[in-house]
Design a protein that fits this description.
globular; 15 helices; mainly alpha; disordered N terminus
């Protein structure tokens, strides 16, 4: 997902306890549960950098004749793969008839084609994002001091299957207190087993899929997203690296490693990166892929407003928790999860950890923070996207945002 993944992973490596007696501390118990499933950042970095060096030495960075067509071909394969995976899953669940062997062979063929295009697509999209960033005057986090029109950190990402993320929240409030990256190949049974064991520690947990990881270099972006999502996410992960050299991003790092906790700073950082990346992503898509469909919304009943529904659920849950009615809140969320599934939204579990993870973005319906409104107001008041980005990036408190957005 973001810069926090590497920080949290390194901290998690320090937790080596293998037993959980009543006297053992929470982190040691947690470590014993997740140890077999942790994502290995060091191994991934070594393999990724080795691959990059190999590509450079072999001269595989030659000019691509039809970059836009190459990208569209890649994402057409992504959609075909997802459709086949759904069909295979249905057959495996004995919900319909079909030739599983031939479908799996076709799936492997399409995945190989996608993989063969991935390095080209990575370079094409990175180049297009950098072009738009340059047009917006966004180069590096110290360009007010060093007048070099060079993107820094270098924008580079890889399209791969993402690690999962274990998110943990207290049961009596919605707040992310631990986030631990897990291996990319977890089964549903393994996810549920991890959640069950962690919940026995008296917390709310959820294993979630993430779209990107800016803590790695190259950054990591899921290989199963849409074109629009991929562009937005690649931009957002670069922005997290950019912000790490600014006051807001530095304070966010202190929050992540537990030196100076500040949930409002975390929310400002995440929301800022999300807002700017969407704006850049929209420009990239309009400039290079104006006729390509990028937004696939889940089918839903007429008149159903998902955003409004999620906001109302969050408000009710907070009211339950404020009154200390934890069981009632959890029962309410379970009922609403079933309702959302019936409306076409495949949310596997709705609990405190779900809202803790998604609520960090103050412009999403799962958040009730006014920070999103304040950032949107400040964006409207800003002369340019660059001014907006650097104004907020220089802030060190929520109060500065509130004062600026008046």
């Amino acid at each position: 997902m973001k810069l926090k993944l590497i920080v949290i992973s390194l901290l998690a490596l320090c937790l080596l306890s293998v037993s959980c007696s009543p006297a053992t501390d929470f982190d040691s118990c947690l470590s014993a549960i997740v140890k077999p499933y942790r994502f290995n950042f060091v191994k991934w970095e070594f393999e990724a950098i080795s691959y990059e060096i190999g590509q450079w030495l072999s001269g595989n960075h030659e000019k691509i004749a039809d970059p836009t067509d190459t990208v569209i071909e890649y994402f057409s394969l992504v959609e075909q793969i997802k459709s086949l995976e759904r069909e295979i899953a249905a057959i495996a669940a004995e919900n319909q008839q079909g030739d599983l062997t031939s479908l799996e062979a076709e799936l492997n063929r399409l995945q190989e084609q996608r993989m063969a295009l991935s390095s080209k697509v990575e370079r094409i999209i990175a180049s297009q994002i950098k072009e738009v960033l340059t047009e917006q005057g966004i180069f590096n986090p110290v360009d007010e001091y060093i007048k070099l029109k060079v993107n820094f950190p270098p924008l580079n990402f890889k399209l791969e299957k993402m690690p999962y993320l274990l998110v943990i929240s207290p049961r009596d409030r919605i707040e992310s207190i631990r986030e631990i990256p897990l291996q990319q190949d977890l089964s549903l049974e393994e996810m549920e087993s991890i959640e069950e064991q962690v919940d026995e520690l008296g917390v709310s947990s959820l294993v979630v899929e993430i779209g990107g990881a800016g803590a790695l270099y190259p950054t990591l972006v899921t290989d199963s997203g849409s074109l629009q999502f991929t562009i937005d996410t690649a931009t957002e992960e670069w922005l997290h690296q950019y912000l790490a050299f600014k006051p807001l991003g530095f304070l966010y790092i202190l929050d992540l490693i537990g030196i100076r906790r500040n949930y409002e700073i975390a929310t400002m950082n995440e929301t800022l990166a999300g807002m700017v990346s969407k704006e850049i992503g929209a420009i990239v898509c309009q400039k290079y892929y104006p006729d390509y469909g990028n937004s696939a919304q889940p089918e839903q009943e007429a008149g159903f407003d998902f955003n409004q529904e999620m906001r109302e659920i969050r408000i009710v849950v907070d009211e339950y928790l404020a009154r200390g009615e934890i069981e009632q809140a959890e029962e309410f969320m379970e009922q609403k999860q079933q309702y959302l599934v019936s409306m076409g939204y495949q949310i596997r579990k709705l609990n405190q950890a779900y809202f803790a993870f998604h609520g960090t973005y103050a412009d999403e319906p799962t958040s009730i923070s006014p920070i999103g409104v304040e950032l949107k107001r400040l964006r409207e008041q800003s002369a340019s996207l660059k001014d907006f980005l650097n104004t907020v990036a220089a802030m060190t408190s929520r109060q500065e945002l509130s004062d600026s957005a008046k």
